[in-house]
Amino acid sequence: VTLLDEPRTFHLGMFEIGKPLGKGKFGRVYLVKERTSGFICALKVLYKSELQQGSGVEKQVRREIEIQSNLRHPNILRLFGHFHDPKRIFLILEFAGQGELYKLLRKESRFPEWKAAQYVAQMASALQYLHRKHIIHRDIKPENILVGVHDEIKLSDFGWSVHTPNRRRATLCGTLDYLPPEMIKSGSRDNTYDEKVDLWSLGVLTYEFLVGEAPFEDTPVMTHRRIARADMTIPPFVSAEARDLIKKLLVLDPDKRLALEAIQEHPWILKHCVKGERASNREKSK
Length: 286
Ligand SMILES: CC(=O)N[C@H]1CCN(c2c(Cl)cnc3[nH]c(-c4cn(C)nc4C)nc23)C1
Description:
The chain is α+β, with helices and mostly antiparallel strands. It has helices at about 50-55, 55-70, 100-110, 115-130, 180-185, 195-210, 220-230, 240-250, 260-265, 265-270, 280-285, and strands spanning about 15-25, 25-35, 40-45, 80-85, 90-95, 100, 135, 145, 155, 160-165, 170, 190-195. The strands form four sheets. Strands 1-2-3-5-4 form a five-stranded antiparallel beta sheet. It is globular, with a radius of gyration of 20 Å. Bound molecules: the ligand CC(=O)N[C@H]1CCN(c2c(Cl)cnc3[nH]c(-c4cn(C)nc4C)nc23)C1. Ligand FH5 binds near residues 24, 44 and 100.
C-alpha cells in the first residue's frame, strides 16, 4: 500500500474526506480515503490558532508526532504521517474500526472477564513495547484507547507521553481517577515518578473494565485521599484471579507493582488468553 511504504510528503488533496469521527481535545477527526491507494485512515485536524493559545499544547502535539511516528506495534495506533497548511496541522492516523473503548464500555456497562483479560493482555504488550523504548504513556484511560474491527486494542493520544528521564518531575495532567499516588502526592521530598505509573493506571483500567466505574471514583477531594491510601473495594462478582491481579497493580509503592512480564503470566490472563498453542496443550506439556 503506497501510504505505508516509503515516508513521503502528504497533502490534503491526496484524501477524499468522509464523515467526521469525533472530536479530540484539540480538533476534529475525519474518516478519509487516500485517493491513489484507496487506503482508509483517520485524519486529525488541529487548528494552529487553538494550539498557540494553550501554552504547552503546541509542544505536546510536536511530542505526540515525534513519539507516535516512530512506534510500530499492533496495539498502538499508527501515525502514518503529518503535514500542515497555513492554519492547520493534519495527522494521518490509523483508523480503528470499532472506535473509542470508553463508548464500548459505557454501552456494555462492564466487560465479561474473558474480554477484559484480553484487553489487559494487549495493553500490557503495548506498555512492554513502550517501556523498552523508555517511553511512559502517563495517560492510560479508556478515553485514550481505540478498538479495531477484530477487538484489538489501539493505544492512542501520546500527547502526554514522555521519554523516561531518570526521574521525571510530576506535572498534573489528565483526570484524577487514573493518577497514581506518586503523581498526586505533593510535599513529599521529590514527587518524581517513572514508567511504573503506567502499571498503576493499568490496574485502574482493569478494575474499570470489570466493575464499570473507576476504583477511586468520588468527589475530587475524596478521590485524592482514596488514591493516596489505595483505598478501594472490589465487588464480590469479580473473580478471585481478577481481584488478585488488581491488588497486585494498585500498590502504593511503585517498585512493588506487578511487572508487565508477570502480568502476561498471571493466572487470570493465562486462563482467558490462549496465545498460539491451545491452553489444553499447555496443560499437557507441564
Ligand atoms: C481524542 C480523539 O481523537 N478521539 C477520537 C475521535 C475519533 N478518533 C478516531 C481515530 Cl484517531 C482513529 N480511528 C477511529 N475510529 C473511530 C470510530 C469508529 N467508529 C465506529 N466510531 C468511531 C468514533 N474514531 C477514531 C479518535
